[in-house]
Amino acid sequence: MTAKDKLYIFDTTLRDGEQSPGASMTRDEKIRIAKMLEKMRVDIIEAGFAIASKGDFESIQAIAKAVKDSTICSLARAVPGDIERAAEAIKPANSGRIHTFIATSPIHMQYKLKMQPPQVLEQAVSAVKLARNHTDDVEFSLEDASRSEFDFMCKIIESVIDAGARTINLPDTVGYGEPEEYGAMFGRLINAIPNADKAIFSTHCHNDLGLAVANSLAAVMHGARQVECTINGLGERAGNAALEEIVMAVRTRQDMMPVETDLDATHIVPTSRLVSSITGFAVQPNKAIVGANAFAHESGIHQDGVLKHRETYEIMRAEDVGWNTNKLVLGKHSGRAAVKARFEALGITFDNPEALSAAFERFKDLADKKHEIFDEDLQALVSDVKPQS
Ligand code: KIV
Ligand code: ZN
């Protein structure tokens, strides 16, 4: 087996995630989440946007003091005031990063920045140089990269790497990219830029078309070695790529992935719950990895299969991402094997197959009237039958 590259996990729940309307968090809440991310061995935590508010600045500073094993990062526009404020906020960190950005797409340069490409290039280079006066760890993002012109991106990336940027992030800011095109963009840029080997290329995808995770993985297949993502996919508009999905896709499909992560995935579910309870953003039941139904089986055929061998219907283990166990939900689609197994787990066995059949028939009658059958329902079903226990 050939050695795999490390994929750096950059979590932006506390910055881009907080940009979800209604998801703002207090300083103490952010510290609690940051500590969980550290425990999970996230490589880089983007703790906020220091210039955005006094509260954001103080949160970044407090996280930089409290978290010692992950790199702590602040976002900054490519302007001196933002960079100085970001530098001040990350000062207490063991390892601190400044993440500076400017838009590079024609539509953003013309209408939002009202700047010509040469001015954008100059501002980007000055920002990176200024940030490098404060830390060796400088990330530069080409905002709206997926709608930017290739030749301009080549020029600006080569220049900011020369100026000292060590991570180059190519965001799909508006979630417009599609996997083949977005992935190929990384491959083409990495091949075309002469000093590309001096930087780590990073992906940052939004989920407007539901493609954020697919686009991030496509970028990884074409050379990206950092993924920016959030817990539960929280983020602007339709959200960002979900950390849990990226990490488990990389782990579950090691057969085809060129990378591996250092993440301790057993903290995924507790972290997801913490973020959900703090922000008040519920996780949909069918959400991959962290949804309540992600490891639940109701149909009889599936339950029978899982009871015989878990891998018949499970591609990863619930315990590996922090659930207690997988769950066989008893309902009207459940089969005899699952119902018998649950009775047995409750200490209830039957003298003969006919007794089990009678109990199973009662179960089916009840399941027609009730969404889910709980242990107490099963106990009640056989309370007047003499079970062998
Ligand atoms: O989506 C985006 O482009 C961003 C940048 C600031 C990195 O969040
Ligand atoms: Zn973003």
Automatic annotation (TrEMBL):
<dbReference type="GO" id="GO:0009098">
    <property type="term" value="P:L-leucine biosynthetic process"/>
</dbReference>
<dbReference type="GO" id="GO:0003985">
    <property type="term" value="F:acetyl-CoA C-acetyltransferase activity"/>
</dbReference>
<feature type="binding site">
    <location>
        <position position="204"/>
    </location>
    <ligand>
        <name>Mn(2+)</name>
    </ligand>
</feature>
<dbReference type="GO" id="GO:0003852">
    <property type="term" value="F:2-isopropylmalate synthase activity"/>
</dbReference>
<keyword id="KW-0464">Manganese</keyword>
<feature type="binding site">
    <location>
        <position position="16"/>
    </location>
    <ligand>
        <name>Mn(2+)</name>
    </ligand>
</feature>
<comment type="pathway">
    <text>Amino-acid biosynthesis; L-leucine biosynthesis; L-leucine from 3-methyl-2-oxobutanoate: step 1/4.</text>
</comment>
<dbReference type="GO" id="GO:0005829">
    <property type="term" value="C:cytosol"/>
</dbReference>
<feature type="binding site">
    <location>
        <position position="206"/>
    </location>
    <ligand>
        <name>Mn(2+)</name>
    </ligand>
</feature>
<keyword id="KW-0100">Branched-chain amino acid biosynthesis</keyword>
<keyword id="KW-0432">Leucine biosynthesis</keyword>
<feature type="domain" description="Pyruvate carboxyltransferase">
    <location>
        <begin position="7"/>
        <end position="269"/>
    </location>
</feature>
<keyword id="KW-0028">Amino-acid biosynthesis</keyword>
<keyword id="KW-0479">Metal-binding</keyword>
<feature type="binding site">
    <location>
        <position position="240"/>
    </location>
    <ligand>
        <name>Mn(2+)</name>
    </ligand>
</feature>
<keyword id="KW-0963">Cytoplasm</keyword>
<dbReference type="GO" id="GO:0030145">
    <property type="term" value="F:manganese ion binding"/>
</dbReference>
<comment type="function">
    <text>Catalyzes the condensation of the acetyl group of acetyl-CoA with 3-methyl-2-oxobutanoate (2-ketoisovalerate) to form 3-carboxy-3-hydroxy-4-methylpentanoate (2-isopropylmalate).</text>
</comment>
<comment type="subunit">
    <text>Homodimer.</text>
</comment>
<keyword id="KW-0808">Transferase</keyword>
<keyword id="KW-0012">Acyltransferase</keyword>
<protein>
    <recommendedName>
        <fullName>2-isopropylmalate synthase</fullName>
        <ecNumber>2.3.3.13</ecNumber>
    </recommendedName>
</protein>
<comment type="similarity">
    <text>Belongs to the alpha-IPM synthase/homocitrate synthase family. LeuA type 1 subfamily.</text>
</comment>
